[in-house]
Sequence to fold (303 residues):
Amino acid sequence: MDNFMVLGFLFAAYSVVHNDSVQTLGTFIASNSKYKWYTLWTATSFVLIVTIVVGWYLNDGDISYGRLDLIPLPETFKWYHALAPLTLVFLTRFGIPVSTTFLVLSVFAPSSVIEDMLIKSFLGYGVAMVAAFVSWKVLSFFLDEHSPVSVTHEKLWVVIQWITTAVLWSTWLSHDVANIAVYLPRELSVYWMVTCITVLVVGLGYMFYNRGGRIQNIVLEKTGTSYVRSATIIDFCYALILLVFREISNVPMSTTWVFVGLLAGREFAMRQQGQVFPVVAKDFSKMMVGLAVSVVIVWVAGW
Fold:
């Protein structure tokens, strides 16, 4: 067993849970603050276990859902393979929404695949922004997100949100679990599958205990994300976009960029331009910081 493989796996698992998953479960956490953290943890852990086991069973031991078909397993792991997710750990501490896909997979992928990843992720950001802007402009004619949900409809919205979150969480995992599986054999044994699930479930529990940590601020500073109705609509749009891009090709993409683009489009639709530009520019600049760090690490690895 390669030491750098194990370190990379552990760092990547921590980064995926504490950086990327918060961007998927952030609205769920924000709008369900009345529930105990372990209730939310139990529900999302169940979806995680089912998603990974089903992927493992249907894909002959490959839990990445085919996202690593173009990225071979290296014969030996080097120190820079572990450096990429370790860098993510530090960036997460500063609340920067870095793309784990770029930072981790770039040190494994051929240059042609990296280029395809970049194109697909930029496309995802743009599609998410436009789709969110149009969706919320249309929705504004039918409902006012600033008005509270009536007591009679609140329970219905909670049920819809939990179902939507389960679909989104499962779809997101089918994209981003590749960032962890890249450190493991492409055909996992039962032992490694159970180990992977255990590490992710424990990390997920720690994340829920801390209510998302610093990355959660990306969600909380947006308009109305703590409302169950708004959170449900955001999650539905996010899940739909990820499903579409999952079917387009097996090339990995940054789900972080899709999420940030979705929130940006929504903010453009709900706020005046003078108010929204600083928020959108701040998120986009953080994305570019993550991309720049990825480029540096790839250059170091090549050197």
About this structure: The two ends are 25 Å apart (CA to CA). The chain has one domain: 3-298. The mean pLDDT is 81. The chain has twelve helices and no strands.
